[in-house]
């Protein structure tokens, strides 16, 4: 164990980590095993994985069927290229399956290995779409502040969380950010997007991208009319609307895709995470029949865009089995039902404890906001690191959650596996109550 920690410190640069902290302290937990909603570390300590790791292990840990699906596919054909006119059955089957599940206007899929690649691919596809129609000046992408779209060059630039911009040094040109509907309301956000579009010149805007619920921004649920207004706005300006369903896809919000809650169809959708529940890296972009039609008709020669793993047969076989499990076990419905219980529990905690502000959730994507005085809308001083303290208190109780803290917010995010059972939701809520109470006591509020 000590040797592992030393090698981890010396050789493993962790994603989204403080390299200095890691050098000093080493890995805090080395996980060894997962089953259902639980992870167990090398010391035998068991945790509720209330984040589905990175919002992605939708069917829960330890599902042998996925290993079996991967093994069978690897035995037969682990990999062969899908470049140009080569193809293979699992990826064809998966494309058909996802087209059947997606909104009726979205039927053609470009595969990637994750969310960032999917969003960068969407940006290139949409710019190509305009270029081949004789409008190359339409190349700007509008996105939301506090939106998260990944860490590839375009995805970082579309991301509206400034902390992620530092490493890029410089954002790509042609990315502009507008106000968030959770903070500014539907009208505030729409007004801000209109202002951005008018300032840049509507004839220069290629697309608007948003998550149905902004996950990494702190599970920011927009007002219920928001995406209808977005649809109207995009139609007014003739702008392509890209829904980033990387977190919200595949049952997370109690519907197969997050945008179903607003009854709106996007022109493109990006997905990753829950499509394989993390058992294999996979993502993709689904384009509308209209966009696909233009690409077919006007694209000249080869589409010079494709990853080695665009259409990986083993990833596709794993995704097909994962989706089969989601459907067979009614996990979308379970997400809705357990999500209601979780939200009810959050509301009860808010009624009982003094330091809870807004609580929110759609399906199994939820958040609890901590405040010094919710009735006066007074936040804690950021130096107190209240969300971090609650996360630590949860960790000690064997619960893994995620803190989001910016501009004085202290948000605890939840995204448990969709297989969570009623008793497990209750246990999670009980541990949350204990953790928040302990921190409140420590802060004497
Ligand atoms: N889009 C959203 C909404 C995400 O939450 C994420 C990752 O958390 C991404 C894109 C990037 O996906 P990946 O980390 O697979 O590149």
Automatic annotation (TrEMBL):
Highest taxon of the lineage: Bacteria
Organism listed in the record: Planococcus salinus
Classification via InterPro entries: Aminotrans_3, Aminotrans_3_PPA_site, PyrdxlP-dep_Trfase, PyrdxlP-dep_Trfase_major, PyrdxlP-dep_Trfase_small
Q: Which UniProt keywords apply?
A: Aminotransferase, Pyridoxal phosphate, Transferase
Tell me if Transferase is a UniProt keyword of this record: yes
The organism's taxonomic lineage, starting at the top: Bacteria, Bacillati, Bacillota, Bacilli, Bacillales
Protein name as it appears in the record? Aspartate aminotransferase family protein
Name the protein family.
Belongs to the class-III pyridoxal-phosphate-dependent aminotransferase family.
Give the GO molecular function terms.
pyridoxal phosphate binding; transaminase activity
């Amino acid at each position: 164990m000590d040797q592992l920690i030393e090698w981890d410190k010396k050789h493993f640069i962790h994603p989204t980590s403080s390299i200095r902290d890691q050098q000093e302290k080493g890995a805090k937990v080395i996980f060894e095993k997962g089953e259902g909603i639980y992870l167990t570390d090398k010391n035998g300590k068991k945790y509720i994985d209330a984040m589905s790791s990175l919002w992605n292990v939708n069917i829960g840990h330890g599902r042998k069927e996925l290993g079996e699906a991967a093994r069978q596919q690897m035995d037969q054909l682990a990999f062969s290229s899908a470049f140009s006119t080569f193809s293979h059955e699992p990826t064809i089957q998966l494309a058909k399956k996802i087209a059947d599940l997606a909104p009726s206007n979205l039927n053609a899929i470009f595969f990637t290995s994750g969310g960032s690649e999917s969003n960068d691919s969407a940006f290139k596809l949409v710019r190509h779409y305009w270029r081949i129609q004789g409008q190359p000046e339409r190349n700007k992408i509008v996105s939301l502040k506090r939106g998260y779209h990944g860490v590839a060059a375009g995805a970082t630039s579309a991301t509206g969380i400034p902390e992620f911009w530092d490493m890029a040094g410089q954002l790509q040109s042609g990315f502009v950010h507008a106000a968030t509907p959770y903070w500014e309301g539907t009208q505030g956000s729409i007004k801000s997007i209109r202002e951005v579009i008018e300032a840049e010149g509507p004839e220069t805007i290629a697309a608007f991208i948003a998550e149905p619920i902004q996950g990494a921004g702190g599970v920011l649920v927009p007002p219920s009319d928001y995406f209808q207004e977005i649809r109207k706005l995009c139609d007014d300006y003739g702008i392509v609307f890209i829904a980033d369903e990387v977190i919200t896809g595949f049952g997370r919000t109690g519907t197969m895709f997050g945008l179903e809650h607003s009854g709106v169809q996007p022109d493109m959708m990006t997905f990753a995470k829950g499509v394989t529940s993390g058992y294999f890296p996979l993502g993709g972009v689904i384009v509308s029949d209209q966009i696909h039609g233009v690409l077919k008709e006007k694209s000249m020669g080869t589409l010079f865009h494709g990853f080695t793993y665009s259409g990986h047969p083993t990833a596709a076989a794993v995704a097909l089995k994962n989706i089969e499990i989601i459907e067979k076990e009614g996990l979308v419905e379970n997400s809705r039902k357990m999500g209601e219980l979780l939200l009810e529990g959050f509301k009860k905690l808010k009624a009982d404890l003094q330091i809870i502000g807004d609580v929110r959730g759609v399906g199994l994507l939820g958040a609890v906001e901590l405040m010094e005085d919710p009735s006066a809308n007074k936040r804690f001083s950021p130096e107190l690191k209240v969300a971090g303290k609650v996360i630590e208190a949860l960790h000690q109780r064997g619960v893994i959650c995620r803190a989001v803290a910016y501009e004085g917010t202290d948000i605890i995010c939840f995204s448990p596996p969709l297989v969570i059972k009623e008793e497990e939701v209750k246990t999670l809520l009980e541990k949350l109550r204990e953790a928040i109470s302990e921190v409140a006591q420590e802060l004497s509020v």
